[in-house]
Design a protein that fits this description.
Elements: H1 3-15, E1 25-28, E2 37-38, H2 41-45, E3 53-56, E4 59-62, E5 65-67, E6 71-75, E7 84-87, E8 97-98, E9 105-113, E10 119-122, E11 125-127, E12 139-146, E13 150-153, E14 156-158, E15 166-172, E16 179-183, E17 186-188, E18 193-198, E19 207-211, E20 214-216, E21 225-231, E22 236-240, E23 243-244, E24 248-254, E25 257-260, E26 263-265, E27 270-274, E28 278-280, E29 283-285, E30 297-301, E31 308-309, E32 312-314, E33 323-324, E34 333-334, E35 337-339, E36 343-346, E37 357-359, E38 363-366
Parallel strand pairs: 1-2, 1-3, 3-6, 4-7, 5-9, 6-10, 7-11, 9-12, 10-13, 11-14, 12-15, 13-16, 14-17, 15-18, 16-19, 17-20, 18-21, 19-22, 20-23, 21-24, 22-25, 23-26, 24-27, 25-28, 26-29, 27-30, 28-31, 29-32, 30-33, 31-34, 32-35, 33-36, 35-37, 36-38
Antiparallel strand pairs: 8-9
């Protein structure tokens, strides 16, 4: 091929190749002088052109952040400083969302709202101290994903508390059927629920992967926060390898998906409850021991199909019930190890075969006086 023909060929080829999109990166703060910089996270995420990456310098940023386009927002280090904290602005938080399940107002510190692609958050602290939100049905939320996909890792959410309405991370699905991962994060100081995932739908419109997180509640006037992790209607969740510290009424509740290899300690009423999710290979300590509540139990099962297998339950207290079948679950509950429970099994349907391993239990099968099986 002649040189002219070669040049013509290369020119023709170049005209049909798409131009590579440049990555738009902004900084928040002054630690990256070579990048376009903004004084607040809100200004950076709303800038034009829209960023692909926002790098947040160490410091405290008192603001409520709303993200509506795909991007990664990450805290970065400078010398010995590594902390980027989103704090409450002067005067407190304001409502910026209504949840789709009950239409109640939400004051979210970080709101990811119907983004068209993934929004990823990393290495950030979201602190709700001084939020000034009042009213029992007015929610304080650290991070809220509304009908948006993405991954959160190495986050700390803390002090989302008020009148029992504080939630660390809230995931809400929708017609985009988003997929959200929350992993390797620290959620503490909330007074209602650590992680909430639900959608106002009879079918699943949200896929949630919740793995390797640590959850510790604050202690409001009634003695414990409500739930560590709750996945409700319209959500399918994989809940794996999380550590739920004492201080909850409920440890984990899930309606669809799987609950596996978690550790739940000191949940007062129920350690793990399922209405459809499989519950396998979890470790549950000293949970479901409210003496005033005979229905309290380490695992509560309201499903005829979900397997409940391979769990290790260690109980104490005058009740200390291990597994409550709710007169519903059947032969799908088996191969669990139960140590030290007053009642190993409660409300087992007639004819159910449930081989487990028992050590120093009071009774193998019991029933509540308020809910005996037929």
């Amino acid at each position: 091929m002649s040189r002219i023909k070669s040049l013509l060929f290369l020119l023709a080829l170049a005209t049909h190749l798409p131009l590579l999109s440049a990555t738009v990166t902004y900084a928040v703060g002054t630690c990256k002088p070579r990048l376009p910089s903004f004084p607040t996270i809100s200004a950076a995420v709303a800038a034009t052109p829209s960023p692909n990456v926002v790098e947040v310098c160490p410091g405290t940023y008192p603001e409520q952040v709303v993200i509506t386009t795909p991007m990664t927002v990450e805290g970065i280090s400078e010398g010995n400083l590594t902390g980027a904290t989103i704090a409450v602005p002067p005067g407190g938080l304001v409502d910026n969302w209504n949840d789709d399940f009950s239409s109640e107002p939400v004051a979210a510190q970080v709101l990811v709202n119907n983004a068209s692609g993934e929004v990823n958050l990393s290495n950030l602290t979201v602190d709700g101290t001084g939020n000034n939100v009042t009213g029992f049905f007015n929610w304080v939320v650290g991070v809220f994903y509304a009908n948006s996909s993405g991954t959160m890792n190495h986050l700390t959410t803390q002090n989302q508390s008020g009148n029992g309405t504080g939630i660390g991370v809230w995931l809400e699905g929708g017609n985009a059927t988003p997929s959200v991962t929350l992993e390797d994060s620290n959620l503490q100081g909330f007074d209602n629920t650590g992680i909430e995932a639900e959608t106002n739908s009879s079918s699943s419109e949200l896929t949630a992967t919740l793995k390797g997180n640590f959850l510790k509640a604050s202690f409001p006037g009634f003695g414990a926060a409500l739930k560590g992790i709750e996945t409700g209607p319209g959500a399918t969740a994989s809940i794996t390898g999380n550590l739920i510290a004492p201080g909850f009424v409920w440890g984990i509740g899930s309606s669809a998906g799987s609950v596996s290899k978690n550790t739940v300690a000191g949940a007062q009423f129920r350690g793990i409850s399922t209405t459809g999710a499989s519950v396998t290979s979890n470790t549950i300590y000293n949970s479901g021991i409210l003496d005033a509540q005979p229905a309290s139990t380490a695992i509560w099962v309201d499903s005829t199909a979900a397997p409940v297998t391979g769990n290790t339950i260690t109980q104490s207290g005058s009740y200390g019930n291990a597994i409550d079948f709710d007169c519903t679950a059947g032969n799908n509950v088996h191969s669990n190890t139960i140590l030290g429970a007053a009642n190993a099994l409660l409300n087992v349907p007639t004819g159910t075969v449930t081989p487990n391993t028992y050590y120093t239990v009071g009774t193998l099968r019991g029933s509540e006086t308020i809910d005996e099986c037929p």
